[in-house]
Amino acid sequence: MRNKKRPSVDIILCSYNQEEYISQALESLVNQRVDADVRVIVADDCSTDQTPQIIHEYQTKSPFPFIYLKANSNIGMKANYRRAFAACQGDYVAILEGDDWWHASTHLSQHIDFLESHPRHSMSYNLVAYYWQDTGATHPQQWLYKDLQYLSINLRQQIAWGNQIGNLSSCMFRTRLLHTLPEAFYRLNFADWELGIMMARKGPIAMLREVTSTYRINSKGQWTSLSNEKKYDSQIQSLDDIQPLLPAYCKCYIRSFQKNIRSGKEMPYVIPFKYKLKSFIRKNLRHSDSKL
């Protein structure tokens, strides 16, 4: 009987001037327990602080090899991710941004196990714990879907429900699908929602119920510091920009989402159809029993 090939994963370590936080990220990386061939793709965007030196220090105690991408000058986030994606060769790609961390040592293995057993899915992402840098408070996301072990989200839902992805450090992708991203995508706003939309063109994306990573939030961050009005404007513009890269039928979902945002309407509580159906059946069974 032929042995199954071990899965392989490239971890993109994306950093820029994060000497205060990078050690925590690296500690979580080197402590991963995973039965796979792992490489660390270091995409540092010419940090001017001690970030590169700290990364080199952790290389000596890492069980995984480090591959460094060279840059002679700061190229910006989009170009940095683009070159990092191009350098990946494994079956899967995981992202760890320099100010986040994976607090579960099984973070990688949970994603790999899911994608290995669900070949139709283009990517997976986990629930996150939000860590507020200013106060030190941590708020884990709550799982809303009771007995479901994961939630499968298609392209329509990824657009219509708004962004469900906590942040890029919670994601794992199929490498071959990342390599199909069109050149035009890298000229748009680059963020978790947009990348999730592009991946959902190739297959459903999965929300995993376990909280295995932590997203550090700073009140002075580029997104966090924006007013709600500016956040809404940004989301509306992002969908206008990405629409030419999507199938024509997505236009109505984009317009519907933008209409809700403009009117200040909150996105509906997301309950998948199958769970609604199961709940309906259980409720009616209980009702029937009470009449006996």
Please provide a written account of the structure.
By secondary structure, the chain is α/β, with parallel strands linked by helices. The protein has a single domain, classed as Spore Coat Polysaccharide Biosynthesis Protein SpsA, Chain A (Alpha-Beta Complex), CATH 3.90.550.10. Helix content is 36%, strand content 21%. It has ten helices and nine strands. Strands 1, 2, 3, 4, 5, 6, 7, 8 and 9 form a nine-stranded mixed sheet that branches. Helix 2 links the parallel strand 2 and strand 3. The protein is globular and about 50 Å long. The protein starts with 7 loop residues before the first strand and ends with a helix. The relative contact order is 0.14.
Describe the secondary structure blueprint for this structure.
Blueprint lengths: L7 E8 L6 H9 L6 E8 L6 H9 L6 E3 L8 H11 L4 E6 L9 H11 L5 E10 L4 E4 L9 E4 L1 H6 L10 E4 H4 L13 H9 L4 E13 L10 H15 L8 H12 L10 H19 L1
Parallel strand pairs: 1-2, 1-4, 2-3, 5-9
Antiparallel strand pairs: 4-8, 5-6, 5-8, 7-9
Helix pairs in contact: 1-2, 8-9
